[in-house]
Amino acid sequence: MPPLAEALRHGPLVLDGGLSNELEAQGCDLSDALWSARLLADDPRQIAMAHRAYVRAGARVLITASYQATFEGFAHRGVSRRGAAELLRSSVGLARDAASGAVGPVWVAASVGPYGAMLADGSEYRGRYGLTVAELERFHRPRVEALADAAPDVFALETVPDTDEAEALLRAVDGCGVPVWLSYSIAGERTRAGQPVAEAFALAAGNDQVIAVGVNCCDPRDADRAVRIAAETTGKPVVVYPNSGEVWDADARDWRGDPTFGAGRAMAWRDAGARLIGGCCRVGPDRIAALAATLP
């Protein structure tokens, strides 16, 4: 199987969709501070089933269940540091096993979510936690090292809310021997913390370890412009995997509105420079299957 960076030179690849919504569709209760990462310890079969659903749908890149998996989060559940490292590595193994049943190559992206995901209070959608870049780097590096031990094909530095955390993550992965993509969560043409996306993307422009840059966990309409800005700013392949476009109503605790994610929109992203295209929250195997059937 060729390295992912080489494969991107031959055309776009389809990412998977939201892991959490597929786990919920399977009947899993994710009302826990660890979110989907809890299942790494409690029921890894469910994670494997979700990965296989996306493989059957045509996904060529699987993102691991490690987004909210941290040493600190597992420690709150009484898991030792050694045990937490094993669980982090197992997230890569579960995706790799699911990929092995595919017809054709499937790459595994080890998810590294933002510091705020560990806090489980929504702060990953605000950023600016009051920590320095050096402090954020010290937080991220141990789990980067644990995940790197499992030899993923790429790191997904994803749902990054601001440039401080992006800088910290890029420092944390430096020297780990694994290529990365850098993906921001945005609102309009700004990061969640308010920086212009062009400024945010520019952090990766001269970094050869970064094989793609873009956005995820955002409105598909915001992704339209962001894909072009990412391509123009960095000259790198673009990664894009937004949410369905529905809006979470916190009072009603339900999703409102109609999805705006679709294969037609994804074609426009491809034409603008996107080479890794998939979905995030509320994008399930059915939409990934439609995407796989549309993209060449």
TrEMBL record:
Transmembrane segments: none annotated. Its cofactor is Zn(2+). Signal peptide: none annotated. Keywords: Metal-binding, Methyltransferase, Transferase, Zinc. Gene3D superfamilies: Homocysteine-binding-like domain. Pfam families: S-methyl_trans. Its EC number is 2.1.1.10. Zn(2+) binds at residues 217, 280-281. The keyword Zinc applies. The keyword Ribonucleoprotein does not apply. GO terms for biological process: methylation. One of its GO terms (molecular function) is methyltransferase activity. Residues 1-295 form the Hcy-binding domain. PANTHER family: HOMOCYSTEINE S-METHYLTRANSFERASE-LIKE ISOFORM 1, ZGC:172121. This is Homocysteine S-methyltransferase. It comes from Streptomyces pactum. The gene is mmuM.
